[in-house]
């Protein structure tokens, strides 16, 4: 396969991954906010969030594999698996690798949620708040397109979307319906 | 199957009422009421068996899940974000 | 053999019967182990904590498990109207301890937990003194823990959770305590009065119990001498009220079973027998043996509103239907009692109390719903009057909350 095709694929798949990951992040936040509407039942946010995460993983793998396999880039497996293990743009590439691995951890724990329980699953899922920004930074710092209009445009749109959802999430009251009731002292407390 | 008698309200240690020989097992929904957070996915995915009260918490209709709805029931079980829903071999939902 | 076993005998000087006097009065138990369980089955003894579950079946379900087992003697008595358990522990601690030891050996438990309410000072002191009088091999098996004050702390999974984690919160079932309880081990949770009954059956046999068995009741409200009484099984409610000094005022209804029980109109209640099976057949429940008399001058709506408010506040707030459902019920009852109801309060009350049972991790919402439904039946005229904002024609003093 010509190096140029691989190169375009890497950049394209990377961009698509970023867009999809941003959509996943938005949907995750909307799920947390218990958003629902006439044609949009609650379960849909969660379901599309999970499905898009899988799709983005596909594009992410495409991005990584084409980048590693491309003879022009001289990236070895180490670059893709060991954060900051590449000689080329060590920091920015490393952020991408880190983001990828956090994503893997989140994905695996989600698949195994029934086995590990909600608490453990939720603890790992918090890493999503690191996973997404790392991906954005990687995109801005690594690619040769970093200053091209289209990538900047995409990045700005993705960031706006996620930031809007994030602000909404931070601004809204705790979604736990029993939080208020529990704030009062429990009658069942007692010292041993 | 489809007896109305409750597993609700009384301790019935280990009791699974006998089912007629040769009949397929009756599956019912079992809710973990402490884990349940009133998200409502179950009522959206299985409206024939689950509806929500005015605070968003599930009320199950009595009786087992009919055969033709079992796949939907399994989907509802796996969709529950709090892992509060299970499908158990029992004559009635609780 | 007169009909007084729990509370009879020469009045002990310090309030509690000593070990020696106990053996002198009653002798040693003759039935143990499997033979005892069979006798309990024939006797038909049901638990006295409130749920009324057959004792022999509970023991069997623990005995047939594998591994180390535990007995939890439940003396938490969270029901505010009930005092029988603390009175029993105060006066006949050895009877309770006997029952616990018999239970432990019959189900194969090495450990016994005494779960005594934090505020039952006299009872706890008596139990500890009695424990000190037991032989070391028995004493070694016991642990004493003080239950937190609260309605739900006597619930069996809450008791187990308190022993395990220091806070009395009910847990989702399965697993039930008989499967996994204290320390994850099969645990028999039994009310102290049930254990005392076992100790008597172990000496006098199941035939004695069926013919001469007694139970403890707490009579409170508008009666002459409220307090704890021991009555033969099957005593009609009216007679029990007479025994406690008769009515101090005309009575319109009896609350039977405590806040977990239900109202019964005085006319219907008077001849109902205080017997778990017969009450069950009549669609009622003995519960923890509370009989509270509501005078004709009191408002049934206000009394029920007060109880519902307490029950809503006592929810441990783990389950949405309980928190919101009981909250809404208590609020609606409060508005009805005060004469400022919303247009659909009565209709909603009926719906909420019908939708509530079975939707909590424990039976707290079920008990509250049962109480409200009984109120809606017994006081239906008053409710309709209150809903129509025609005011209340009764004096509005609620039933005394707390032992009279």
Please provide a written account of the structure.
The complex is a heterotrimer of chains A (192), B (94) and C (404). Helix content of chain A is 73%, strand content 0%. With 192 residues, chain A is mainly alpha-helical. Chain B is an alpha+beta fold and 94 residues long. Chain B has helices at residues 41-45, 70-79, and strands spanning 27-31, 50-52, 58-60, 85-89. In chain B, the strands form 2 sheets. In chain B, strands 1-4 form a two-stranded antiparallel sheet. In chain B, strand 2 (50-52) and strand 3 (58-60) form a beta hairpin. Chain B starts with 26 loop residues before the first strand and ends in a 5-residue tail after the last strand. Chain C is built from 17 helices and 9 strands. The chains are: A mainly alpha (192), B alpha+beta (94), C alpha/beta (404). The interface between B and C is medium-sized, with 21 and 24 residues.
Short description:
Chain A has 192 residues and is mostly helical. Chain A has helices at residues 3-32, 42-69, 77-81, 90-111, 113-125, 128-142, 149-171, 179-183. Chain A has eight helices and no strands.
Blueprint (SSEs and pairs):
The complex is a heterotrimer of chains A (about 190), B (about 90) and C (about 400).
Chain A: H1 3-32, H2 42-69, H3 77-81, H4 90-111, H5 113-125, H6 128-142, H7 149-171, H8 179-183
Helix pairs in contact in A: 1-2, 1-6, 1-7, 4-5, 4-6
Chain B: E1 27-31, H1 41-45, E2 50-52, E3 58-60, H2 70-79, E4 85-89
Antiparallel strand pairs in B: 1-4, 2-3
Chain C: H1 19-26, H2 33-43, H3 55-63, E1 69-75, H4 84-91, H5 93-107, E2 109-117, H6 121-133, H7 136-139, E3 142-147, H8 156-165, E4 187-191, H9 192-212, E5 214-221, E6 227-232, H10 237-243, E7 251-256, E8 262-265, H11 266-269, H12 276-281, E9 290-295, H13 300-313, H14 320-338, H15 345-355, H16 364-378, H17 380-387
Parallel strand pairs in C: 1-2, 1-4, 2-3, 5-9
Antiparallel strand pairs in C: 5-6, 7-8, 7-9
Helix pairs in contact in C: 2-3, 2-5, 2-9, 4-5, 4-6, 5-9, 13-14, 13-16, 14-15, 14-16, 15-16
